[in-house]
Structure formats: structure tokens, C-alpha cells
Task: inverse folding
């Protein structure tokens, strides 16, 4: 089976409720290619093959290949969006610290929350005829704050037209990595300061009850005391900056030989408390954020990576914005807290 010679136009980027690839799929369904050499490709990848555009590898095409025809030029914004998205997903820890992701098609979003009472947190047998305890779910008073993050791609077509897409893709992935770091910073801020709905993180300070020890001390005892504050949740995730992580890794109890073997074999850091540790330099100095990643944080996305397709198609790059709109909301009270050392 050959490629579908679809008529490609800028209007495909403007269809409500569908991205460019979904529009292509509606015209050229991937299910039609089962059992063929093109099985496993999506409609966009098949259009690249149609025009002989190779995006990766030593034999990758030059940037100018996209502009050989008007139809192939329409594919360029989607190529940029996909490559930026790839950079966002490389080494992305957001899935590891968010309980759920909500995709919306508007600029406003009001989440829900539940504040359990002490009675809710205690399980007990129900006598015959006894009223079943209630868990109240409410709509948050304030909207989740959404932020547009992105970069302006500035380049002369003449300067890059002969560059290989493999190299150009590295630049685009770097843009994606930068956007992802900005999102992580937003997530950290919400974990500490809340999402504007009076749900700031509970702060525990070393030297003040219930965290034992002199102020400024960081040892196994302080970590255990911090861990104990999460009942009925579980502190299964720790976020801290490089200096704080270094201090924790020097705690004798965290130098267990099995911990070292796990790190050497998988690159993942663990603790005797069962929490996964992540190094994020956007976490303030002398602060350790603990959370139960199953209940603490919601990520809200307004669509996908957006590019100024008109400029990319008509002016062949020059200057175009690449943006992503997202925000974060707190879900369950008590599922996150931070320790000040």
C-alpha cells in the first residue's frame, strides 16, 4: 500500500477539538495499514515518508526539505511541536509526582477537593442501622492558575536551510527541556505555597515539636519524625535540591549497601523510608518536600504544545513562539508537607 496523497493546508491546525495529527488520522486511518510495511506508523509519519523527509539518523534530511512544496511545508509546525514535546518528555519526573493529569479546552479550570475530618481518617465497624460516614467533595473557591510557558524560536531560514534535521532536532528538544523545567518550578511552588485555595503546605521545622533534634540538624531521626506526620498518607516521594540531597546521602542509615547497589544498577535513589528521592534545584535551600504522589498534586493542561504555524509555514521560520499552557492544583490536604532544616 502506498501513501495517501492528502491535500495539506494550514486550516488543519485550526480544527476545534483536534490536533494536526488527529485531523490527518481522520483522513488516513492507521488501521488501514495493518499487515503492511507501514503498520506501526501514524498519519503524520506516513506523510513524512510521502515527501521523503527523514527526521532522524545520520541520513536525516535538511531543513529545506520541508519547504520543497507547499504541502510539505504544512508538516513543519507539527514536526517542531513533536520534537519539542520529545524534549519535554525526556527525563520528565512530573508523571512521578502528580496523581492525575487533566486536559481542558478552556482557559479557566476549577478543581475539586476533599478535607477529611478526624472521624473520616479512623476506620471502624458499622453497627446495624448506623449511619455511614460521609466524605464531602467540594469545588475549590479559586481557579487553578494556568501559566503559559515557552520560548521564541528565532532563526533565519537561510542560516538553517542546509542544516540536518537530526541536529536541528537537538535544538528543539532543548527548548522542550527548558519548558519542562519551568513546569517543575510551577509544581514545586504549588506544593509549598498552595494553589490559592488556602491549602499551603504544612511546614515542620527541625528543633520544633514534632521534629526532634537541634535546629539545623539533619539525620535519620529527623527524617523518621517527618515521615511519621503523613499518616494516613505515605511519604513515598522526596524533592530537594542538590545540596540537601548530598546531605541526606551522607546520613549513615542511607549508606546501606543495598541502597548503593540499587543506585549503581538503576540510577534510582531510594531511602530506608521507602521514598523515592528526586533532585530539583528549584526547591529552596534547607527545605525537603515530602508527598504522597498518589494524592497530592493534579496537573492541568490546556491542550498540547502550540506553535505559530502561520509564521512557520509562510515565513519559513524567522520568528515563531512555541508555548505550552499548564498549571497545578493541590488535591488532598495532608498529602504533602515540607521540612525546614
Result:
Amino acid at each position: 500500500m502506498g501513501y495517501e496523497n492528502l491535500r495539506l493546508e494550514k486550516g488543519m491546525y485550526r480544527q476545534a477539538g483536534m490536533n494536526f495529527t488527529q485531523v490527518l488520522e481522520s483522513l488516513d486511518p492507521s488501521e488501514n495499514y495493518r499487515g503492511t510495511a507501514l503498520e506501526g506508523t501514524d498519519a503524520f509519519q506516513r506523510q513524512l515518508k510521502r515527501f521523503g523527509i527523514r527526521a532522524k539518523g545520520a541520513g536525516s534530511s535538511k531543513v529545506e526539505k520541508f519547504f520543497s512544496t507547499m504541502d510539505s511545508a504544512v508538516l513543519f509546525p507539527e514536526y517542531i511541536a513533536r520534537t519539542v514535546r520529545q524534549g519535554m518528555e525526556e527525563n520528565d519526573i512530573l508523571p512521578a509526582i502528580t496523581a492525575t493529569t487533566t486536559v481542558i479546552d478552556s482557559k479557566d479550570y476549577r478543581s475539586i477537593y476533599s478535607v477529611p475530618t478526624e472521624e473520616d481518617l479512623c476506620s471502624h465497624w458499622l453497627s446495624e442501622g448506623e449511619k455511614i460516614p460521609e466524605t464531602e467533595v467540594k469545588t475549590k473557591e479559586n481557579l487553578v492558575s494556568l501559566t503559559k510557558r515557552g520560548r521564541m524560536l528565532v532563526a533565519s531560514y537561510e542560516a538553517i536551510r542546509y542544516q540536518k534535521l537530526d541536529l536541528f532536532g537537538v535544538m528543539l528538544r532543548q527548548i522542550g527541556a527548558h519548558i519542562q523545567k519551568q513546569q517543575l518550578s510551577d509544581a514545586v511552588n504549588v506544593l509549598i505555597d498552595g494553589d490559592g485555595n488556602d491549602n499551603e503546605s504544612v511546614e515542620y521545622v527541625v528543633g520544633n515539636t514534632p521534629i526532634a533534634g537541634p535546629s539545623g540538624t539533619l539525620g535519620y531521626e529527623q527524617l523518621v519524625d517527618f515521615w511519621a506526620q503523613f499518616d494516613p498518607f505515605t511519604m513515598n516521594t522526596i524533592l530537594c535540591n542538590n545540596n540537601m540531597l548530598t546531605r541526606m546521602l551522607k546520613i549513615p542509615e542511607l549508606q546501606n549497601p543495598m541502597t548503593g547497589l540499587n543506585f549503581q544498577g538503576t540510577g534510582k535513589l531510594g531511602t530506608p523510608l521507602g521514598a523515592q528521592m528526586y533532585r530539583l534545584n528549584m526547591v529552596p535551600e534547607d527545605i525537603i518536600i515530602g508527598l504522597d504522589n498518589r494524592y497530592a498534586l493534579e496537573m492541568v493542561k490546556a491542550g498540547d504544545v502550540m506553535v505559530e504555524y502561520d509564521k512557520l509555514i509562510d515565513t519559513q521560520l524567522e520568528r515563531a513562539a512555541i508555548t505550552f499552557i499548564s498549571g497545578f492544583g493541590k488535591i488532598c490536604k495532608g498529602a504533602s508537607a515540607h521540612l525546614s532544616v
In short: Residues 165-193 form the longest helix (29 residues). The mean pLDDT is 88. Residues 1-50 form one domain. The chain has twelve helices and twelve strands.
